[in-house]
Amino acid sequence: MDYLSIVVALAVTVSSIAIIHLLTRVKKPCPANLPPGSLGLPVIGQSLGLLRAMRSNTDDQWIRDRIDRYGPVSKLSLFGTPTVLIAGPAANKFVFFSSALATRQPRSAQRILGGNSIFDLHGPDHRRVRGALLEFLRPDMLKMYVGKIDGEVQRHIEENWAGRATVTVMPLMKRMTFDIISALLFGLERGDTRDTLSGEFARVMEGIWAIPVNLPFTAFRRSLKASGRGRRVLEGITREKKEKVEQGKTSRNSDLITCLLSLTDEHGERVLTDEEIVANAIVALIAGHDTTSILMTFMVRQLANDPTTLAAMVQEHEEIAKNKADGEALTWEDLAKMKLTWRVAQETLRTVPPIFGNFRVALKDIEFDGYFIPKGWQVLWTANVTHMDASIYHEPAKFDPSRFENQSVSAAPPCSFVAFGGGPRICPGIEFSRMETLVTMHYLVRHFKWKLCCKSDTFVRNLLPSPLHGLPIEIEHMTSP
User: Fold this and answer.
1) CA distances from residue 289 to 84, 158, 234, 249 in whole angstroms, order as listed
2) How confident is the model at residue 109 (pLDDT cuts 50, 70, 90)?
3) How far, in Å, CA of 307 to CA of 298, rounded?
4) Orientation angle between helical segments 169-186 and 274-304, nearest 10 degrees
5) 81-86 and 378-382 strand pairing
6) Are 387 and 409 in contact (CB under 8 A)?
7) Exposed site from 60, 236, 267, 381, fewest CB < 10 Å?
8) Exposed, middle or buried, 472 (CB in 10 Å: 0-12/13-18/19+)?
9) Is residue 259 a known part of a binding site?
10) What residues have CB less than 8 Å from 12, skipping those under 6 apart?
C-alpha cells in the first residue's frame, strides 16, 4: 500500500470514528451559564483557524478578535476537546494557582516524554520531583557553574562566529544551549555521545507537537523512535553515574543527574527512581533548550535595529570587562551587574514570549468569572494578551526595557508578566536561563556588530516563534578596547 492510500485510509478511519462518536454519544444537558461562543464543527472545532493564525503570526489578533466578540471568557473546541479561553491577569492567576486545574500536554508530547515527566505529575508527586530539580537549580548551586557556561559560550563563538561574514542565529543558539545543558545537566564532555544525543534530540523536537499518528512516514513516528534511542543513551549515562555515586567517586554538584541520584529523604531512601531521573532529564533538556535559544535569537534580532539599546548594553559589558584579565571567566558577581541586559531580555520575553500559552484540564466542575467550566474541559491561557494590554503596559507595541527598571512593573496587577508562567508550576529554570543569556550577550555585544540579511523582519509561530529563515545576519568582528 503506497503512502497516498495510507493517508486516505487513515482519513476515512478518523472520520468514521468521529461520526460514530457523534451518533452514539449520550447528550448531556448543558448548564445555562457556560461561557459564550461556539464549539464549532465536531472534532475540528476551531483548531485549524488557530493553527493557521499561529503560522501566519496573527495568533494574537485571532485571540483578540475572540475577546472582542465574546469577552475575556469564551468557549471553543481545540484539538478535539471542548475548551474555555480565558485572558488577563486575573485569568492567569486563576490558572496558575487553582488546585482544580491540572497541566495537560499534547498527546504526542505525553507519549514521547513518558509518564514520569514533571509536566504530567500532580500533587505530592509533582512537589517531590520539582523539589528535587530545584536542589540543582538553586542560585547558590548555579553560581558554581558560571565558569563552565562561560567556557562553552566562548568556545562556541570562536568556532561558529569568529572569522565568518554571515551566520544564521537560531540554529547556532540551539546548538550552543544544547551543549551547555549537556555539560551541566548530564556531565557530557564534547565527543561522540554528545553528538549522538544532539542528533536524537533534534529528531525528537521535530515531532513532539505533531499529530500522534504512529505511521512510518510521520514526524511523530520519527520523534518517538528518536526519543527511545535518546532515552537509552541517558539510561546508560545514569547507570555509570550511579556506580560512581555508590563508590563515592563523584561530587553531588557535578551535574544534574548526579545531584538527583544523590538525593535521599529522611529515611535514607532515594527521592527519585532511575526512570524518573531519565524522564525529567529529558524534560529539562527540552524546556531549557528552546526557550533560551529563542530568547537570545530575538534579542539579536531586536538589537540589529535598536542602536540606542545596543550602545547601552555595550557600555554595561565593557565596564565589567575592564576589571577582568584577558581570558578570565565571568563570575556570579559579574552577572549581577548586568541589570540593563536582563531588562532587555525581559522586554524581549514580553514582546515575543517563547510560549504562546498552555492548556490546563478541569479536574472537577469549576467556575470562573461567573461561568461554569465542566470537568474534563480544557482551559487555555495565553501570554500575548496580557503582555500587550495597554491598560497594563503603556504603548505595549513599543520596545522599552525601562518598564522593568526599579521594579516599576510592581504596580501592575499580579500575573501580568507571565513569560515564565507562574504559581507552583513557574519555570524552575529561570536562573539557569538568565545565566546562559547574560554570559552569551556579554561576548556577542562586545565582539560583534551585525545587521539583518532579510529585508522582511518577520517571524512565524509554529507553536514556538521562529524568525524568517532562522535569522541570517551579516557580522563584523570588533576589537574590544
Assistant:
1) 30, 21, 17, 29
2) confident
3) 15
4) 150
5) parallel
6) no
7) 267
8) middle
9) no
10) none
Res 1 pLDDT > 90:
no
Where do the domains of the chain lie, and which CATH numbers do they carry? 3-477 (1.10.630.10)
Helix (H) or strand (E) holding 213: none
The CA angle 180-185-187, to the nearest 5 degrees, is: 85
Q: Which three cell numbers stand for residue 130?
A: 520539582
- The model's pLDDT over 310-340, given as tens digits with 9 standing for 90+, comes to 999 999 999 999 988 888 899 999 999 999 9
Q: How high is the mean pLDDT of the chain?
A: 85
pLDDT(269) > 60: yes
Q: Tell me the pTM.
A: 0.86
Question: What cell does 335 get?
Answer: 552577572
Sole residue written with cell 564534547 = 190
Three cell numbers written together for 230: 535518546
Which residues are within 8 A (CB) of 333 and not within 5 positions of it... i.e. 6 or more apart?
none
Asked if residue 454 lies in contact with residue 343, where contact means CB atoms within 8 angstroms, the answer is no
Angle, CA 210 vertex, CA 294 and CA 286 arms, to 5°: 40
Encoded amino acid at 399, one letter: F
Q: Quote the distance between the C-alpha of residue 324 and its chain's center.
A: 33
Question: Which spans in 161-273 are helix H?
Answer: 169-186, 192-207, 219-246, 256-262
- Report the C-alpha gap between 273 and 154 in whole angstroms: 36
Neighbouring residues of 316: CB distance < 8 A, sequence distance ≥ 6: 337, 338, 339, 340, 341
- Rg (C-alpha) for the chain, rounded Å, is 23
Residue range 243-257, pLDDT digits in tens: 998 888 888 888 888
**Dist. CA 27–CA 39, nearest whole Å:** 14
- Distances, alpha carbon 343 to alpha carbons 137, 340, 404, 408, in Å: 21, 5, 6, 11
